[in-house]
């Protein structure tokens, strides 16, 4: 096999397909966004007019980014099939979102999650969450996505990393700045189709290439599975050499989605409880994701949108995990290098797959899929950043009487500023040496647990008050920093067993969440009860009045219950099949 990675030739057909993609996206974005700048609700929430298929497609397109094409493929190359649980494990948070949070959040008629936190608790918590949302958006989402895209262009075309990041940022951020959520959501519908087609073809071509002279996808699958078992040869050596770093054991099973509690990225406790600590934050409290739900026509379209997103999550491992397994089967010798070199090479996994298996003439389609993933996430995060900065900070703190045109203008300039800052930060991610996927998940484990804890407790229990929530968030952020400091500077303080338990970021987020939940509960019980306005049926869940079983579809084949149930059965079946020793 020719491993000449210094060349990446493109045919005129590649350029044509990529330019055609940009032209279609631009036309959709311009047409859908041309009238949305007349009001703040239109710009930030698309006037609450999105149908279910746009809600679901945009939800997935916002989620899929270079974290997946670059980070997740790289993580699958290193860790194996267990990375699939970052997709299939969403059944927990999606189920809670469909059956609990959607009817609750839509009933509040809020624009942003910080707005809800002020009404339920106090202005202090709203401002803390708003500022941390902006920080997380810029560092954990925008910068990471721009870095991943920059790596792709840098490797493919030999551009300096900063030039690649600049180009990706300017081009991908344009529709968020121009047309708001409506432009983003409808361009996402087209973009997600391209991403699925392009990503699936990489996996198919990879299996075909792996089969060699047999020219069979089935043979390629068999070879991929056999080599990822690592029972002999350089594949066994690669697994044995890295087992201590990955699971703190002498070996690890690359073909099981269920991993030991000491696993670096997918410890089994996080599969069961992780959605409480970070999944709910990502799906329900994360403004750039929940904004699509808040922009839906009604509760039915919001719920069916998330169900639709769930079915696409079933397919995601085919796009982002299988290529990583194929790459390990092709190039296991990479795993014999020092760890920092392994992670750097893993982040180039998708590009290596393009160079190894995709013929000239088809590469433009795959570049369009990668660019579409980057563009949709950058646009979504920029729009949510503008929403929070404008409505939760500017209007709330500086200009309470601001008119809609002023708010939209502030949102535009906020997007521009956030884009510039994130491009600057993106350049330094490569210097961390941990890989894009680990970088992002580590930040999630820090930001998510405090707010997930106070939100869940706040809506379920009326005794939780503002003092408890505020103390929990502030002390929780400090506790999170202490855990990071312990791992970085004092790893031997409590012995290896404690370190191996705390080091995985999935376990960190769970420990962090428990700490915040305990603090929030204890402080609330020791202080005064919240006021009646803070625990009304709009701000806390009243199970007798909550419309859980309303808006579920007027015909059986439109039933949310039916399609959600089938989604759940599919996920459970897949987890059983891929839980070890069945393949």
Describe this structure in words.
This protein has a single domain, classed as Sodium/glucose cotransporter. The protein contains 25 helices and no strands. α4 packs across α8 and α8 crosses α20. The protein is globular.
Q: Which fold name corresponds to the CATH topology? A: Sodium/glucose cotransporter
Under CATH, the homologous superfamily reads Sodium/glucose cotransporter
* Residue runs with pLDDT of under 50 for 5 or more positions: 1-6
Q: Kindly report the average pLDDT value.
A: 82
**Number of helices, where a helix is a run of at least 4 consecutive DSSP H or I residues:** 25
Percent of sequence in beta strands:
under 5%
- What is the level-2 CATH architecture name? Up-down Bundle
Q: How many domains would you count in the coordinates?
A: 1
**What is the helical fraction, as a range of percent?**
over 70%
Q: Which structural class fits the helix and strand makeup?
A: mainly alpha
Shape: globular
What's the β-strand tally? Answer: 0
Q: Which SSEs are present, and which pair or pack?
A:
Elements lengths: L11 H22 L6 H6 L6 H12 L2 H14 L5 H4 L1 H19 L4 H8 L2 H35 L3 H12 L1 H37 L6 H13 L3 H15 L20 H18 L1 H8 L4 H22 L1 H9 L8 H8 L2 H9 L5 H36 L5 H26 L6 H25 L5 H24 L6 H7 L2 H22 L33 H18 L6
Helix pairs in contact: 1-10, 1-19, 3-10, 3-14, 3-15, 3-19, 4-8, 4-16, 4-17, 4-21, 6-13, 6-15, 7-8, 8-9, 8-19, 8-20, 8-21, 9-19, 9-20, 10-11, 10-15, 10-16, 10-18, 10-19, 11-16, 13-21, 13-24, 14-19, 15-25, 19-20, 21-22, 21-24, 22-24
């Amino acid at each position: 096999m020719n491993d000449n990675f210094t060349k990446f030739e493109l045919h005129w057909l590649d350029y044509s397909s990529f330019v055609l993609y940009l032209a279609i996206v631009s036309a959709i974005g311009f047409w859908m966004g041309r009238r949305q700048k007349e009001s703040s609700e239109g710009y930030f929430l698309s006037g609450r007019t999105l149908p279910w298929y746009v809600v679901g497609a945009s939800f997935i397109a916002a989620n899929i980014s270079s974290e997946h094409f670059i980070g997740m493929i790289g993580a699958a190359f290193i860790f194996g099939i267990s990375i699939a649980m970052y997709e299939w494990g969403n059944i927990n948070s999606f189920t809670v979102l469909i059956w609990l949070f959607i009817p609750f959040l839509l009933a509040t008629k809020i624009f942003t999650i910080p707005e809800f936190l002020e009404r339920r608790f106090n202005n202090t918590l709203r401002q803390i969450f708003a500022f941390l949302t902006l920080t997380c958006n810029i560092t954990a989402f925008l910068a990471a996505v721009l870095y991943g895209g920059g790596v792709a262009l840098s490797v493919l075309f030999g551009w300096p990393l900063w030039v690649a990041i600049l180009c990706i940022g300017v081009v991908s951020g344009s529709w968020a700045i121009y047309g708001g959520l409506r432009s983003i959501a409808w361009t996402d519908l087209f973009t997600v189709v391209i991403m699925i087609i392009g990503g699936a073809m990489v996996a198919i071509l990879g299996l075909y290439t792996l089969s060699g002279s047999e020219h069979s996808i089935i043979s390629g699958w068999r070879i991929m599975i056999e080599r990822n078992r690592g029972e002999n040869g350089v594949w066994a050596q690669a697994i044995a050499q890295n087992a201590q770093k990955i699971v703190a054991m002498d070996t690890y099973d690359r073909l099981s989605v269920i991993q030991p509690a000491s696993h670096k990225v997918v410890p089994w406790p996080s599969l069961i409880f992780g959605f409480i600590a970070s999944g709910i934050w990502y799906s329900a409290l994360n403004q750039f994701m929940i904004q699509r739900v808040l922009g839906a026509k009604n509760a039915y379209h919001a719920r069916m949108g998330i169900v639709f997103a769930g079915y696409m999550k079933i397919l995601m491992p085919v796009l982002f995990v299988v290529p990583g397994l194929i790459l390990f089967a092709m190039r296991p010798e990479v795993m014999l290098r020092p760890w920092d070199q392994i992670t750097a090479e893993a982040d180039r996994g998708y590009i290596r797959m393009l160079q190894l298996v995709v013929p000239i003439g088809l590469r433009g389609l795959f570049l369009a899929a990668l660019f579409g993933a980057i563009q949709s996430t950058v646009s979504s995060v920029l729009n949510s950043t503008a929403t929070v900065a404008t409505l939760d900070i500017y209007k709330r703190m500086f200009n309470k009487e601001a008119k809609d045109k002023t708010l939209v203008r502030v949102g535009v300039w906020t997007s521009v500023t956030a884009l510039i800052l994130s491009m600057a930060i993106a350049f330094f991610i490569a210097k961390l040496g941990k890989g894009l996927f680990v970088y992002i998940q580590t930040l999630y484990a820090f930001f998510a647990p405090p707010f997930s804890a106070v939100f869940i407790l706040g809506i379920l229990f009326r005794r939780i008050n503002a003092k408890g929530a505020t103390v929990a968030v502030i002390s929780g952020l400090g506790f999170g920093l202490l855990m990071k400091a312990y791992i970085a500077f004092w790893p031997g303080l409590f012995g290896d067993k404690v370190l191996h338990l705390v080091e995985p970021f999935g376990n960190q987020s769970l420990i962090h969440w428990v700490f915040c939940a305990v603090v929030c509960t204890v402080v609330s019980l020791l202080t005064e009860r919240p006021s009646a306005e803070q625990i009304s049926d709009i701000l806390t869940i009243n199970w007798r009045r909550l419309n859980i079983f309303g808006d579920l579809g007027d015909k059986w084949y439109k039933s949310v219950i039916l399609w959600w149930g089938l989604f759940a059965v599919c996920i459970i079946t897949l987890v059983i099949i891929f839980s070890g020793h069945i393949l």
